[in-house]
Amino acid sequence: MTLIKSTVAATALAFLSACGTPDSIAVKTPVLEQQQSIRYASVEVKDVSLPSYASADEISQQSPDGTIIASKVLWADSPDRAISLELSRNLAQLTRARVASEPWPFEQEAAATLDVRFVDLVAGTDGVFRATGQYFVGVFEGRERSGQFDLSLAYDPNGGPAAIAAARGAIISELSTFLARDALR
Question: 2-183 adopts what CATH topology?
Answer without folding.
Answer: Rossmann fold (3.40.50)
